[in-house]
Amino acid sequence: MNNFTYCNPVKIVFGKGTIAGLPELLPANETVLLLYGGGSIKKNGVYDQVTKALRGRTWLEFGGIEPNPLHETCMPAIALARKERIGFLLAVGGGSVLDATKYIAAGCKYGGDPWDILSKGAEVQSALPLGCVLTLPATGSEMNGGSVISRTSTREKLFFISQKVMPQFSILDPETTFSLPMRQTVNGIVDAYVHVTEQYVASPCNAPLQDRQAEAVLLTLAEEAPKVLVNPSDYDTRANLMWAATNALNGLIGCGVPQDWATHMIGHELTAFYGMDHAQSLAVVLPSLWRHTKPAKQPKLAQLARRVFATAHDLSDTAAAERAIDATEHFFQSIGMKTKLSDYGIEADDAARRVSERMKTRGDSWGETGIASADIADILRKAK
């Protein structure tokens, strides 16, 4: 196991009815800016619960944050927060709203162009404090310091990570997810699954506890996913999926182990160029990337097949690794997630050229295995 430092200060408040406890979590004398997405929280009752909890406080709101949140949308929110001297940001929604809120929190305190934080790696030295009411489990953003932001003018999708934008608290009420469209539910399951595999399907390093923690999350996602398709309003199923997604990317299963993240980097470019949902891009890239890097990833892929999918016990590691890739692809497809570029009307050669050229400008060694732009082109051509 490699050396590591782990600190996660986020207070999790989990369970039905927990939004009512929001007043005890917010600072007493700060103006609060409520941030949310397209307005679904006004249809499912979450907005009413939150605003009831805000009674007696000074607060403003900023809506319209889109999936794959845009720099162009965040900038007016930064201007509003500065003008009104906002003291606390409250994100109510899914990972996109929370990612945007983190960028706004950092941008409010940054002296230059906030895009520098993403494009130039400018250090986040301070940020507005923030909290979260989660309504879509997927990204794990409710318990980490990561944020992914897109920019329309440059067709880029970039990320930053900072302890300064860790939420002070996150309220996770599974009942807020009952009314989610199934597309968003499936996206969340796939996103969480790939978050785990980016930390799990890498070089073995004698970290059995982290392996089994990762496998527990994968097994939970695989077992609960079919149930939510049949009964979207089952509390226990929604609760298990919500907590699994949080644990997929709160840093714990990644302690002291090699990580990859090449699937995410390639997927971000597919979203930037073609507008794919984040999880759709991951489901397309992951199986093809695994097949391309199978010699390096064979031990952990074989372990995935045997421990998570309970198959390939009598096969060689080579055959078991291929079985794991097939099983993962089948799992995605079984819950309604398509896994080929052609399923989304994207021409593989065009994607290969665009994405490989873009990524080469940022460096030519990606992920744990150090794949180059030529590898990326091949991966995408084979994902047709």
Can you give keywords for this protein?
single chain; 384 residues; alpha/beta; Rossmann fold; Dehydroquinate synthase-like, alpha domain; 2 domains; 6-stranded parallel beta sheet; two-stranded antiparallel sheet; 14 helices; 48% helix; globular
Question: What does this protein look like?
Answer:
The structure is a single chain. This protein is globular. With 384 residues, the chain is of the alpha/beta class. The strands form two sheets. A six-stranded parallel sheet has the order 1-8-5-4-2-3, with helices on both faces. A two-stranded antiparallel ribbon has the order 6-7. It folds into two domains: 167 residues, Rossmann fold; 200 residues, Dehydroquinate synthase-like, alpha domain. Helix 2 links the parallel strand 2 and strand 3.
Secondary-structure topology with pairs:
Layout (H helix, E strand, L loop, with lengths): L10 E4 L7 H4 L6 E4 L10 H8 L5 E4 L8 H13 L4 E7 H15 L5 H5 L10 E7 L9 E6 L4 E6 L7 E4 L9 H19 L7 H23 L4 H14 L13 H13 L3 H15 L1 H14 L9 H18 L13 H13 L12 H9 L3
Parallel strand pairs: 1-8, 2-3, 2-4, 4-5, 5-8
Antiparallel strand pairs: 6-7
Short overview:
This protein is of the alpha/beta class and 384 residues long. It has helices spanning 22-25, 46-53, 71-83, 95-109, 115-119, 182-200, 208-230, 235-248, 262-274, 278-292, 294-307, 317-334, 348-360, 373-381, and strands spanning 11-14, 32-35, 59-62, 88-94, 130-136, 146-151, 156-161, 169-172. It has a six-stranded parallel β-sheet, with helices on both faces. A two-stranded antiparallel sheet has the order 6-7.
